[in-house]
Amino acid sequence: MKKFSLTQFFIAVSLLAFNINSYAAQWYHVELIVFEQLDIVTDEQWPQMPEIELASLTPQSISKHIQPTENETLINSVERLNRSARYQVHYHSAWQQPIMRKRSAEYVDIHSDNDMIQGKMRLYKSTYLHAAIDLWLVENTAKVNSWSDISPDGVDIDMPRNPHLNESRRIRSKKLYFFDHPKLGALLKLTPIETPAVVQSSESLETYSLPIEAIPTVAE
Fold this sequence. Notes:
Elements: H1 6-24, E1 27-37, E2 67-68, H2 75-83, E3 87-98, E4 108-111, E5 117-125, E6 129-137, E7 164-171, E8 176-179, E9 184-193, H3 197-205
Antiparallel strand pairs: 1-3, 1-9, 2-3, 4-5, 5-6, 6-7, 8-9
């Protein structure tokens, strides 16, 4: 009788467990608005804005980790913001995703069509749901100065400075949350949904079974 190695066994079991966990995770309709606050006058010094790396997922991605969908829950909020002279909406998008444990959760890329909003957001679950928002309002693309890119302390300062909304907080589903900043704000709402049918179909096609026969670990 031939035997397969413990390594092969644990790989197969791990793949099966990953598939079950991703399938069992609760899916949500996620909707996000990001807007500029126009009537704010401040002497606050904005941080240096690094090169923004694209996140692994986008609201338009199609996979078992994320699905595109239509904006639907915050349309009235967008209309109210746009009617006000105090605000300008730069970004409004929605998507569907399962919310995983923190170590498995991936970032979603947030990028407005006018390039004014750039960044990412990650949703994850521990005891409670959490949202981590990391967004930039791109007001300035010019270098800080034209004569030196190194400060006396050896810090690179040859980078544009822009308002930065970087906040993580505990959230609950079906509630509207406001993330505040002197120059920009974000509205976020999560609504539980059924696992999309297209994801259920793809999951049912994936099977991870133990090998019928493998290279024996000992000669018999």
